[in-house]
Amino acid sequence: MDTDERQLTPRGEERRRQLIEFAARRFAENGYHPTSVAEIVEGLGVGKGVFYWYFDSKDELFRAILSEGQRDLRRHQRDAIAGDLTPLERVRNGVRASIEWSLEQPVLVRLFQFAATDERFAGLLRQGERIAVRDAAHQIQEAMEAGEIPCADATLLAQAMLGVHTRIVHLMATGQIEATDEIISTAVDFCVNGIRGAADRSFI
Questions:
Q1: Architecture label for domain 66-204
Q2: Residue 29, class by beta-carbon neighbours within 10 Å (0-12 exposed, 13-18 middle, 19+ buried)?
């Protein structure tokens, strides 16, 4: 049974959340493949029956972790762009929120990186990326319509911003550069100035 279709009690929701959070940490620490369902339930002090009430398999649990992480990132972004802001201010706040969330969620970032290498999960990750690009492109298009930036391919610019975000987070997460506010601001400025300087041209 798909757990998303179940009407869980508050206690059931809490138990499901515990399974997701505990498993996410174990997967990040020990790797997805070495971590078993038995290890997860033993670590939480529950029986396998509890696990299989919420999830049909370890794969389904991992997909739930990815989905919950992607939804949390989108909530963080929505909060950052709420209020009386210009479209370009929403772009700026959205980029910063994405980077800051990623730095605050090293466990999920590590699992996202693994998911990208495994075809069982890569499709779900790509779906989340498509949503992220669509949302960013919408904000960029509104900035163009407001005359804040030149007209260009909004989707291509959103893809470019995602690339900057992904690379800068990787460098920070692996300790290759320091995760400072100055570095974050530099990355945000690079993205915003890049789309502001995107002249009306044909991209090849």
A1: Orthogonal Bundle (1.10)
A2: exposed
